[in-house]
Every structure is written in C-alpha cells, then in structure tokens.
Amino acid sequence: MAQQISAAARSFLESCALAKAITGESPQLGTKCWMVYQDENGSLRKECAKCPYAAESLKGDSISVDQHDTHTVVSLGETLNDKRILELKKILEGLLAKEIKTIFLDCSSLIAIHSGGLGVVLRAFKEQKEKKRNLFLVNPTPAVTAILESTLLSRVFQSVLSIENTLNVLGRKEEEERSGEAQRKEEERKKQLEEARSIRCWDFFKGHNPANATACAECYYKHANAERPCWLIVGQVEGVEFEYISEDCLSCPYFLKFNPEGTLEAI
Asked: Are 245 and 155 in contact (CB under 8 A)?
C-alpha cells in the first residue's frame, strides 16, 4: 500500500537507531521496523508510538468502507491487530444490523491477522449465511490463504477474485429465484437431506464401508446415532464453531448421493 511520507518522517526514519538495528545504516522507505518491536497484541513500543514515520505509514493500515446500493466493500489494511480487530468488529456489526445482503472483505493488502480477527469474520460469515445473505473474501494474499488453510477455514469461507464477476453470478441466482428455479433446487436439497437421515451410511454400505472410512462396527456416528452427517467435521476458532466437509469424503458414493450442500460453487 503506497504511502506519501513527509520529509520530516523520512529524516526521523534515517536517524532512528531502532530502524538501523534491523535494516543497517540506511533504512529505506517501506520498512515496517515498528512491527519487529510491537508486542503480541500489536501494541507499539514507546519509542515507535512517538515516531512520525510509523504514524504516517500506519494511516494506510486503517479499514475503509465503500457502500453501494447492492453491496458493501470493506477494505482491510496490512495488519489486523487487536486495535484493528475491534474496529472491524464494530464495522461488521453495523453492516449486519443494516441487513446488508452482500459484504465483500477486500484482503488484497492483508498480510497479518490475529486469531481474534478470524473469529470476528467467522461470526459475521455464519450470521450472513443463516440469514441467506453473503460474505466473500476478495483476493486474499498468500499469507492470508496459508492461515485459512492451516485453520481449515478455507473450506468454509468463499474467496473470489472479482467483485464484478461475483455480483453477476449473484444476479443470475436472483433471476433463478424469481423464476422459481431456486425454490425447486432448495426443495431437492431438503429431500436429499431427509433421505440421508433415513438411510444412514452403515445401511447404505451394509457393513462394506470404503477402505478409507472408519469400520462400521467402530463408527461413532452409528453407535451415537448422530444427527450430523458423517461427512461433516466440526472445527473451532476463537470459540466459534464451524462445519466443513472432510476431504476423505469427497469421492464417497454415500456423500455424492446424499450431501445436501452439493459442491461449493466456484464464483
């Protein structure tokens, strides 16, 4: 995120002993030296808190909101530390209260996110989904993608490359709803779910379960008569639960026949 740095701030950077300890004798613009000295909560060291270079650089790390008639874009800065997490939480709570149908979180600049930030986004995502609304991550950086994959949230959140293309897809879905096609698909999914609950996997395979599956005689789902389909796994981030589909189940005949969610549609 390119920043306009004043001559005074640049001079302060070039003479700063803390910056030189990291970069050598000639600290360059763009150096985020204050991040090395901040604590785990993202609080700045006393010297860095007074630094004009850090202050001017961090201006571009704030969160911006761009509201449109059909959607809202929330653009994140480079870091979601505790201070920015509280800011994002208030923004998302406000958008949820306004019942914004589609929220885009622009992650194209985000390179660091604390676990509390993941929890805030996950809560908003779950509420949007429960109310049949949308929340998309836009252009997550490799650093964010790695975090999502390590927490398995990559199987929950929908990431998109283009806001315009996504809005076009959503427009086509709305047209389906008006034509009755969406209702037909929803009824078919409900029928599949009811069938999956009535024909459990141990009945479907008649004891001859796939080689990569738990043997029916040892299966928790069978002994507990669990309501949750066996292909769903429950994860948790910051006390917020989420469900995702086990990769081992994607080729399973039972999953392919009965899963009500279908495959995640690419947008």
From this structure: yes
- For residue 259, count other CB atoms closer than 10 A to its CB: 20
What single letter denotes the amino acid at residue 85?
A: I
pLDDT in tens, 151-181: 999 989 999 999 999 999 999 888 877 777 7
CA–CA distance from 150 to each of 46, 89, 240 (Å)?
A: 33, 23, 16
Number of domains in the chain: 3
Sign of CA dihedral 30, 31, 32, 34: negative
Work out the end-to-end distance of the chain between its first and last CA atoms, rounded to an integer number of angstroms. Answer: 26
Helix/strand/coil for 64: strand
Do 70 and 53 share a domain, yes or no?
no
Answer yes or no: do 158 and 214 share one domain.
no
For residues 188 and 181, what is the distance between their CA atoms, to the nearest angstrom? 11
Using one digit for the tens of pLDDT, what is the confidence trace for 107-137?
Answer: 988 888 888 899 999 999 999 999 999 999 9
Compute the distance between CA of residue 236 and CA of residue 72 in angstroms, rounded to an integer: 27
